What we know:
Blueprint: E1 5-8, E2 14-16, E3 25-27, E4 33-35, E5 41-43, E6 46-53, E7 58-66, E8 73-76, H1 77-84, E9 86-90, E10 94-99, E11 105-112, E12 115-118, H2 125-135, H3 140-154
Parallel strand pairs: 1-8, 2-7
Antiparallel strand pairs: 1-12, 3-6, 4-5, 6-7, 9-10, 10-11, 11-12
Amino acid sequence: VSAPWFLDPAATDHPTHDLHQVNSYQPYTSIDQVPIGNGSSLPIQHTSKGILPTSHHSFHLKHILHVPSISPNLLSVQKLATNNNCSVTFDGNSFFIQDNHTKAILHRGVHTHGLYHFLHHSSSPSYAFITLQLLNLFPFRTRDLAIHHLINFVF
């Protein structure tokens, strides 16, 4: 899962317009549709599950619905909290996700343009490993500066 996602306290599932957001999927065979704010409903084409990685934690997403006409990608707060044994706390400018057992903060996000944006980490660990190996070819000072900028970019 890699495109931007937004927390939605009213969502009952995790709808996405982008089928590339999931690794594997199944055709949706029910007649249910996703209701939207204007009173209409949008058809569901596929269902799936996935993982939403951050720099410190990976969140499991069940009930991802491929809804081609929906935008943006939405995260059901209730499903996110239930499936990951965590709680989500909102204020006017941000939110944080906390592990119910350890009370550790798993993730923080921001409120922008009326939406709570779930910023996540989408780069592959193997890509980062190869990049760091290539950086070892540079002189020490140049390499350290490049690694500093890479870490700030990736995380």
